[in-house]
Automatic annotation (TrEMBL):
Residues 281-316 form the CAP-Gly domain. It comes from Periconia digitata. Belongs to the TBCB family. GO terms for cellular component: cell cortex; microtubule plus-end; nucleus. PROSITE patterns: CAP_GLY_1, CAP_GLY_2. Gene3D superfamilies: CAP Gly-rich-like domain, Phosphatidylinositol 3-kinase Catalytic Subunit, Chain A, domain 1. This is CAP-Gly domain-containing protein. Keywords: Chaperone, Cytoplasm. It holds the Pfam family CAP_GLY. It is found in: Cytoplasm. One of its GO terms (molecular function) is alpha-tubulin binding. Its main location: cytoplasm. GO terms for biological process: cytoplasmic microtubule organization; post-chaperonin tubulin folding pathway; tubulin complex assembly.
Length: 338
């Protein structure tokens, strides 16, 4: 609650806070004149207007009648009102609200987040709140406000302790860019995690825990804990077998070896495992059209197909492309050289 002093000169003041009958009387944080239909009348916007009696009791000022009348003026004078004599003023009852917070998109080299700021904050106070968000000391911050396609607005002031954010054109969801004025060598690199101490749980301790993903997989018999799951070798064999089916490789089909720079052609003569060759999975035995191979269809004395010497070769399925590839003759080779 507060006591107002109203006069025709447009001054609206408020008494300091007081305690009367266990009621705290507080001064107004904002008062303004409101224009009315008559040039001789004005209205003041305030929160609650009360007039105290001499005996420390208080009554609300009438909000419907004008105190400019002789009756009301005498009433106020009789009860020792602190309201000055009025000629034409109407006090209206309206609520005062503080300036609403504004949502801003705060971005820096190491952070980006949405923050709500109060226009009543001073620029110095605002910078101190930005320091733990951006990691930039308040004294090294350079603030820039970007509103849509407008030119950037610098958020700076000579006296940051007295300048409020309300002095700048804050708009909801405008971008506030916080730059670091320190030299690059003096800026900490928050994105480098190599120097951050990390905790690594020993494998034995992790395997002994009952609340881990590993324990859940064991209980559900998933992955390598599935007794019916194929081994790694079996999975590779199955993968190579699927590759043969997807590429349409069959016995006696024509193929071209990959990559295309190889350019050799031949006929598939064998599909299956070759234990004599290191590696797991299926192999494709190809009888080449020219003696540019490595064997005659046998490996270490074990024969897999018949062909001339150096006409045979074993390759992985992914190196074969099936299709209508006729044998190359000398004329074709000459044309390719041209």
């Amino acid at each position: 609650m507060f006591v107002m002093h109203v006069c025709n000169y447009g001054r609206i003041l408020a008494s300091p806070p007081k305690v009367l009958d266990n009621i705290v009387w507080m001064h107004a944080c904002r008062c303004e004149w409101l224009p009315t239909s008559s040039s001789s009348q004005r209205a003041a916007r305030a929160t609650y207007c009360t007039i105290p009696y001499r005996n420390n009791k208080h009554v609300p000022l009438s909000l419907t009648s004008s105190p400019s009348t002789t009756k009301n003026r005498n009433h106020l004078r009789h009860h020792g009102s602190r309201v000055a004599p009025l000629t034409s003023a109407i006090v209206t009852h309206m609520s005062l609200q503080a300036a609403a917070d504004v949502a801003l998109l705060v971005t820096s080299a190491n952070s980006s987040s949405e923050r709500r700021v109060s226009p009543a904050w001073t620029l110095a106070h605002f910078k101190t709140r930005l320091e733990p968000i951006t990691g930039i000391p308040a004294s090294c911050q350079q603030l820039t406000l970007r509103i849509n396609s407008q030119d950037p607005v610098s958020i700076s002031a000579v006296d940051e302790e007295q300048t409020q954010l309300a002095a700048f054109p804050l708009q909801p969801y405008a971008e506030l860019v916080v730059a670091d004025t320190r030299p690059p060598s003096a800026r900490p690199n928050f994105s480098d995690l190599s120097a951050v101490e990390k905790y690594e749980m020993p494998s034995a301790e992790y395997e002994s825990r009952s609340d881990s993903v590993l324990a859940w997989k064991k209980a559900q018999k998933l992955g390598r804990f599935d007794p019916n799951a194929p081994t790694i070798e079996q999975q590779k064999v199955l993968a190579s077998e699927r590759e043969i089916q997807e590429r349409g490789l069959t016995i006696q089909c024509r193929v071209r070896l990959l990559p295309e720079s190889d350019a050799r052609r031949g006929t598939v003569m064998y599909l299956g495992l070759v234990p004599e060759i290191p590696g797991i999975g299926f192999w494709v035995g190809v009888a080449l059209d020219e003696p540019t191979g490595k064997n005659d269809g046998s490996v270490k004395g074990k024969r897999y197909f018949d062909c001339g010497s150096n006409y045979g070769v074993f390759v992985r399925p992914e190196r074969c492309e099936s299709g209508e590839f006729p044998p190359l003759d000398l004329g074709d080779e000459d044309m390719e050289e041209l």
